[in-house]
């Protein structure tokens, strides 16, 4: 079954063609970061307008690279939530229009399920049950994946998402938006022990995490000492990154042990982070747990993950119809 995946929930316009939910034929992503960078974050109205400009060229490019036409597509899968409402509506309207014009079926896919199921694109993909950590700009949540379509939220952030903490910290430090990659790159040249930033909620009785205190600590540090430069900036980034990776990986392992799960998956934009990847790997290995990490290009938003989520939803019997609404707060 050839699935077209369309993603417009935030600031990436993406389209991909995926065969049977496993084999990527093409995966095209057009990012808007240059447009939003000067505002220090995503401006919803600008995001919607740019999706409208980009969505058809991106779709066309995905079909061309795969050597396919719309005639070859068996199912159209589109992110219908969660995300920015105006941005979601662009993809949803395109999917409905394509469906009406071609007679092909479509489904609305959940963006978070897309992040989780991107791991299906690995050759040795884990089968449920497994523990998933979805860590992105908008979410930081632990899910018990009991089966495809059966997800139990077991813990999440009580305030900022980890990616949000990265982006806000980058702003404090005068680094470009989005802040994840620049901080990660500087951190690799710094000393993670230079500054001890707090780890929120270290107690064993909760599987929640919190990042707003960490962000405030960085702010207080900068207020007292000014924005560091050179090596001191790299040290601060490394210390911040260590605090995020330490808190997340500890809770992740604690959750796996509490739920008796052997397989773990980290996904979402922050799963691209070098220290989070290495620390999760180290701690999982210490306890004989098996960690699965998507390649970096499948961590940030893309159309392939939406094709996989749509394919799995279709197999469960989900069908879209022309009344399908975008749901900006869709809980998985
Ligand atoms: O999944 P994603 O592309 O979009 C959302 O669904 O939010 O995630 C974007 C987030 C941003 O906050 C960005 O700063 C963060 O992922 N990010 C990273 C890295 N690459 C992207 N955070 C830490 N380290 C990275 N290498
Ligand atoms: Zn995302």
Number of strands: 10
Low-confidence stretches: none
Structural class by helix and strand composition: alpha/beta
Beta-strand share of residues: 15-25%
CATH fold-level name of the largest domain = Nucleotidyltransferase, domain 5
Radius of gyration: 20 Å
Within CATH, the superfamily of the largest domain carries the name ATPase, nucleotide binding domain
CATH class of the largest domain: Alpha Beta
What does this structure look like?
The strands form 2 sheets. This protein has a 5-stranded mixed β-sheet, with helices on both faces. It has a 5-stranded mixed β-sheet with strand order 8-7-6-9-10, with helices on both faces. Strand 6 (130-135) and strand 7 form a beta hairpin. The chain has 2 domains: 2-117 and 299-315, Nucleotidyltransferase, domain 5, CATH 3.30.420; 128-293, ATPase, nucleotide binding domain (Nucleotidyltransferase, domain 5). By secondary structure, it is of the alpha/beta class. It is built from 10 helices and 10 strands. It has helices spanning 33-37, 44-66, 85-102, 111-117, 162-172, 180-187, 212-225, 230-259, 274-286, 303-315; strands at 2-7, 12-19, 23-31, 75-81, 106-110, 130-135, 140-147, 150-156, 263-267, 290-292. The chain binds 5'-O-[(R)-(carboxyoxy)(hydroxy)phosphoryl]adenosine and zinc ion. Keywords: Acyltransferase, Cytoplasm, Hydrolase, Iron, Metal-binding, Transferase, tRNA processing. Substrate binds at residues 134-138, 167, 180, 184, 273.
């Amino acid at each position: 079954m050839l699935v077209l995946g369309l993603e417009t929930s935030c600031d990436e316009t993406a389209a991909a063609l995926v065969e049977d939910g496993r084999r990527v034929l093409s995966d095209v992503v057009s990012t808007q970061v240059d447009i939003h960078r000067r505002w220090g974050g995503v401006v919803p109205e600008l995001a919607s307008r740019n999706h409208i400009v980009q969505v058809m060229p991106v779709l066309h490019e995905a079909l061309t690279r795969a050597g396919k036409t719309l005639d070859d597509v068996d199912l159209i899968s589109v992110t219908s939530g969660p995300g920015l409402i105006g941005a979601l509506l662009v993809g949803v309207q395109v999917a409905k229009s394509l469906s009406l014009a071609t007679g092909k079926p479509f489904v609305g896919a959940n963006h978070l399920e897309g992040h989780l199921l991107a791991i299906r694109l690995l050759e040795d993909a884990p089968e449920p049950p497994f523990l998933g950590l979805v860590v992105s700009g908008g979410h930081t949540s632990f899910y018990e994946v009991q089966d495809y379509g059966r997800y139990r939220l077991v813990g999440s952030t009580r305030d900022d998402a980890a990616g949000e903490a990265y982006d806000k910290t980058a702003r404090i430090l005068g680094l470009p938006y989005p802040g994840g990659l620049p901080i990660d790159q500087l951190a690799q040249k710094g000393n993670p022990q230079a500054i001890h930033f707090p780890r929120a909620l270290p107690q064993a009785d909760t599987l929640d995490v919190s990042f707003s205190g960490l962000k405030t600590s960085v702010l207080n540090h900068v207020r007292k000492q000014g924005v560091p430069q050179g090596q001191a900036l790299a040290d601060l980034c490394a210390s911040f990154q260590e605090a995020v990776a330490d808190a997340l990986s500890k809770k992740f392992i604690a959750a796996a042990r509490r739920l008796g799960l052997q397989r773990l998956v980290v996904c979402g934009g922050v799963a691209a982070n070098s220290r989070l990847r290495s620390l999760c790997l180290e701690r999982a290995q210490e306890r004989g747990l098996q960690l699965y990490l998507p390649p970096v290009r499948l961590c940030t938003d893309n159309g392939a993950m939406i094709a996989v989520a749509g394919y799995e939803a279709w197999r469960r019997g989900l069908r879209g119809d022309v009344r399908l609404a975008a749901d900006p707060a869709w809980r998985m």
